Amino acid sequence: MKEKIKCFLQIFSPIIVGSIIGILTKESINYHILNMPPFAPPSIVFPIVWSVLYLLIGISYYLYRQTNKEPKIITMYYLQLILNFLWIFIFFIFKLYLLAIFWILLLILLTIYLIKEYKKRRKESAYLLIFYLLWLFFALYLSIGVYLLN
User: Fold this and answer.
1) Does the predicted model carry a pTM greater than 0.90?
2) In the prediction, which pLDDT does 32 show?
3) E strand or H helix at 95
4) 26: number of CA atoms within 13 Å, CB side?
5) b/e per residue, 77-99, with b = 16+ CB within 10 A?
6) How far is it, in rounded angstroms, from Cα 7 to Cα 24?
7) Buried b (16+ CB within 10 A) or exposed e, 5-29
């Protein structure tokens, strides 16, 4: 039973925490009043995409942890997750758009690091993070656009 709970938490904790943060910040998200760059999706896309990405991040971590328990990589995973969750506060609550750009750049670097390290140990884990990395690049584009247009 303990293993099943551990598995559940490793896979679903990103979705659970992301959902809680989404609920807590929902009223502060001013997406509809921002001047957005071309190709910006409608706001309904974000919770759908992030739910899928958080699930992939959780599965990736779970697969990695099946055979690997290196403290440095585990720490980097949680650091990247915490930075990811804090971004919404930086961007939408505090409206620090320039800081949000640098924050995403840091997330991109951490994610590349995780992909590289996961690939050495569990390729499936690395491949599942590629979608997240691509979305981070798109988020970087959107953040730069918001910074320049608002």
Assistant:
1) yes
2) 87
3) none
4) 8
5) beebbebbbebbebbbeeeebee
6) 26
7) eeeeebbbbbbeebeebbeeeeeeb
